[in-house]
Structure prediction request, 336 residues.
Amino acid sequence: MKLIGKSSKNMPWQKKPEGYNGVVWRHEGNPIIDWNPTKKTSRIYNSAVVPYKGEFAGVFRADHKDGKARIHAGFSKDALCWNINDDEIYWKDENGNPYQPNYSYDPRVVEMNGIYYITWCTDFGGAALGFGITKDFREFIRLENPFIPFNRNGVLFPRKVNGKYLLLSRPSDSAHTPFGDIFLSESPDLVHWGRHRRVMQKGGSGWWQSVKIGAGAAPLETSEGWLLFYHGVSGTCNGFVYSMGAAILDLDNPSKVLYRTKDYILTPEKSYETTGFVPNVVFPCATLHDADTGQIAIYYGAADTYSAVAYSKLDELVDFIKNNSELAAGDNEEYR
Ligand code: BMA
Prediction:
């Protein structure tokens, strides 16, 4: 079993604690970002990090003290202690004119050939996907929004598949539900998107992903298929609960789900996950990973307040997904 990609010797890593029986375990120093991390911001969570020039950079969701979400750039030597800019990212369009979103949240980042592609949820007469690039996390160029509203959780694949860029997303209505399934769209040029496919549906025999699901971190290429961490939501008397699951999508045709976890692999348990601005949320948005060892660090937002890290090992995780898999009714049906 192989993780295909670069090695990352300096990514954060901790061994699984003795006696722990899950396939994903939490970083001992969680949360890595606490309340009021910078002067202007009150909570930084649901954020994306990548290796950058031998160290790390990231795009962070930061809720300001006016309550509105923006995205900020940040830098780190060890990917645990982050130096996050107090000012939000200022976008320019391709002609160099300011092109600032009203609000921005839940960014994801992937690198292809030295360009970092950022997707996030933006205001486009309603929640939709924003899209932009940077080469240095200092200058940011905003490109065309990929889709009309309403949409959230846009996650780009880290390479073209069959010559096309691929983008996972979760179309929705103007509120928070319904429309809870993950779709895949392809593009020859990152401007025109089409050939939409429904990849994964909410549901399953359990309840943890019964209300909606959304892609989390950019898919990881492995010898077994694309490994996707995603969030699943259940409804309770006390509101939504966000947990994390994992799926494996076919390498050549990622609209086909091969396996997905019947049970969640992480759910709110620790106080920083169960208590905060919005209780009971774990929301993965990124991974760091080392192709040589199969070590994976998952970056997730906790309780819409904190940033946290959890770890897993590729071989153990993939075995677990394969042996504990259940597709939802309708997954892999030709549905266009
Ligand atoms: C979703 C998004 C996430 C958030 C989650 C729980 O709809 O807004 O940013 O973490 O709700 O509040």
